[in-house]
Amino acid sequence: MNRRTHFQDGFTLIEVLVGIVIFALGMMALAQLQGSLSKSSAEANARTVAINIAEETVERMRSFGQITASTTVDAFNNIVTYPGPDDAPNIVQRGGIDYALEQLVTDYYYNPENPPATAFQTNKPDSRIVNPDLKRVELTVTWGTDEAALGTGSITLVDLISSFTTASGAK
Question: Which of 49-63, 84-98, 110-124, 141-155 has the lowest mean pLDDT?
Answer without folding.
Answer: 141-155
